[in-house]
Give the backbone structure.
Amino acid sequence: MTKHGKTPAATANPTPAPGDEAAAPVEVKPDAKPDAKDAKPAGNPPPFDERKLKFEELAPFGKLFEIDHLVVLARDGRAIVRANAALGLAAAGQPVGELVTMLRDSEPAAALAAAEAIARLGAAIRPFIPQITLAVDGTKPDVTGVLIDALAALIGIADDELTSALDVPHELAMKSIVEACREVGIQGISFLIAAVGHERSRVRINAIGGLERLGKLDADRTLRFLADVEANDPVPDVRTAAKQAMLAVVARGKVAAVDSLPKHIPDFEARKLGASELHEYDSVIDVDEMVHALRDGRAHVRVNAARALAIKGDKAARAAKSIGLLLRDSVEPVRREAARALGKLGAGAIEAAPELVAALGDGEAGVAEAASETLEALGDQVRDALLRGLETGSEVHGLRVGALIAKLPQAAEALTEAFKSPAVNVQVNAALGLGLLGRDRAAFGVPSLHRARTGGDARTRDAVRRALEMIEPRGETGPRHIGIEGFEERFLTAADFEKHKSAMGSVAIDDLVSHLQDGRDHVRANAALGLAAIGPTAAPAARSIGVRLRDDSPRVRVAAAQALDRIGDAAVLETADDLVGALRDPDATVAETCASVLRTRKARVIGPLVRGLETDDPRHGRRIVDVLSSLPDAADILADAFESPAVNVQVNAAIGLGMLGAERVGKGRKALEGARTRGWERTREAVRKAIDMLDGPRESGPRVIAVDGFETQLLDAAAFADPSKLDVGDLVGFLQDGRAIVRANAATALGAIGQPALGAAQGLGVLLRDDDTTVRIHAAHALDKIGDEAVKDVAGFLVGALRGDARVAAACARVLSARKTRVQAALVKGLEADDETHARRILELVIALPDACEILCDAFDSPAENVQVNAAVGIGMLGTMRAGSQGRKKLEGARTGGFARTREAVFRGLAMLDANP
């Protein structure tokens, strides 16, 4: 018996029965023989089930504990026993996996005890560092703090394991290993620099992300190291991360911070604001605040700051260098807006000339074009920066630099002088720049080119030959003509290619691949089907076909999917990620075609399908799990995926398990049941939906509305004057009623309630797609009465309802026009419309906005064909005076190239401008 009156458990049966209410004292080894220096403590260890013990109380018994028994107690149903068992394991110096599992225990005391045990085990916990890092994603703040301290203590002791633990999602790496590095300061910087040498790119990127956050602690060493990574790392994403980290370290080190982001401009931190919205606050825009906002982590905030500085014009000249740093931003719209903003600063933009010249090499054409326009406006003032830009190793970049130099006075002399440089890159780009001048203007430099046709570097000689050909062109080049009737005139079918199978034998794969990039939809689709007709030997073209799965034309996307299917398994497996991504397609035919291609490959595409579960689009996720559900072991695959730390994967895997049904869900049900009350809120919601799918939804329904005629006749707003008879929740339920009269009355009643019915806005928005015209009109009126916030929330539905019935469109147009810039984003998004009447109704609202020209010019830069077409027509509708030189220049610059429909719309827009001064 112990002094507490309880007998220790017998050695032969150390495992207590589940739910046993008897004491659970830890078993002591009867034959333990401690060293003389570790004399056996007097008495027995205290019972584990009476109170929360301290480590100091258990430490004297550490060498006497039975480890297997402690592991059993760590799984006990009582939190106090689990907590004491964790500290007992620490006292015994035994790291086990149960400690990691306990870190996310639902009882805070047990989780905190496990964290303390891990901290006390020190270096002994090294094998479990990756699992501990993953566990941090779901631990409570106080537990996380203990674990961060424990990991920090291991830096310099367990660097290999800590480096491997960086192979996790970026946010998790930042909140775990990088936070531990922050605790040890300079030593943490040294660890992160060493980690960038790891073979896995995700580890390198996360380590660089840590340097981005902590690099200010040792800015000089960090910047030197990151510059080397940016220049030499073979992985583009790693180089991009290094560039972004350098930008962050420089910004933090050299720019004085201001107190906060601007609070006097509504929605500045919530969404991207239009120039017209920011113009209203011109007088309160503070340049220093906006310079601070340029360094914000949110892309739309950085865009807003750049636009605000552009509004200030030459008064913001001192911000030029800060804006120039954004030209290296990882987000393309931010870079493009920075280039445009610099163009508004006037001569002050010269400070950012080197950054603008560097931006000419941007991979996104829109950014490069904006930088080019700004540099062109600065003219001869940026000559030196442009000449230095000839040092680039990128041919596209060099050609853009050369094209701007060609517009300067004495361009031939400047390029000829640059051609004398010993640097090969400068020679190549200067030669090509001379070629861009043409026969007459390049005359000064032609002798230098002739002298360099032999000797010197091979790249220089090749550039010289090309430059001379540009000065004296030799004729057109391009893919050879495909000798199949109708190939360049109309959409062909697979049967058409079968009829010309003999002619396909003489068609080169490279020519068809080139036609995949043609500006005409039917030519791209035909090229894909032509490669399909060639069959397996066209497998090298798989990646080029995969790109067409993101084509603007649905028929091209379908043809690409069919082509990959017919070329064979090798092509499908190489582009499996593209096919899985295409399951997101808004066109159901495209999505189903891709799903069919994936289903036929079964287990061979499991990897891409599981990776695709990371999507945050519910429809995309359902289509992926629908393909997975066709596999015989779908339950096991989805149950394993559900264990992922990524919340999107958990959500989609849960829904997939529910879709399997009660007979097939297997072990997935246990996984769902165990997650109903833990983890992410979105995961718990998905789990509840999945269980409802397995067991059937709970019965529910709205209560009867006590208004005469509510369910039998169409009522007006006066019938709902008594608010005591109305409940928003019940009315929302009736919005889904099968009777049109009831749905219309429910909408009218919600409108009568007014602003308190704001929560019903989404339900009313859905009614704007109702089959009944009257219901749609009543829904629009209701949203109007509820107020601006409701209209803003469902602006997309209102814009969509402009299609179709004229009465509905008129009602929605009145609601939208009253909100002006508050619905600007939805109107611009609506320009994706492929219906001419729908598009014109949207454009009539857009052109009523004060900065309609700028909005439409921005929209015209979209890669989507429909947006380009509608924006071009909208610019024409503005008329010559409102479109101004900006609108006309935008249209005139797009008369050649691009989509055929876009070019046609451009000419229509120009004709409208000419006809409407």
In short: The radius of gyration is 34 Å.
